[in-house]
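FAQ: What does the model actually see?

It sees only this:
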Amino acid sequence: MTSLRLPVAVTLRPTTPADGAVLREIYASTRAEELDQVVWAPGQREAFLEMQFSAQDHEYRRVHPEGRFDVVEVDGAVAGRLYVGPLPGDLRIIDIALLPGYRGRGIGGALVVGLQDQARAEGRTVSIHVEVGNPARRLYERLGFEVAESLGLHLRMEWSP
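And it is asked to produce this:
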């Protein structure tokens, strides 16, 4: 999947070491609301985000060595990231995140539909772990995902062709 039918040109390309700063920015944008509730000493928030990003990135790549770690571009500009780990019989969405200016424009949904199309062609399911209160859960439900397992603060949602 490299291009989608949207009013804008959406493409995926593998992450590179040169993407480090923008991947950190994408990660930080997903934590902004949560971290805005804390009073941070100068530099403390940035250090915390760096530590958390590095730990997450290392773990994603350790657990999913065969994964696809892609940058999402919209009209040539970095808009987010899509990480997918192929498992036996399943395409696991490890992470999908868009920068705030690209949210709510149908891009995330189109990326998920593209994965569903791929999974259908390969006879696989698509799964994702979602925090219980994450508003994106409604998107996944609209796209046919169902809760397969409750894991406390997270749900494993799954779509079958």
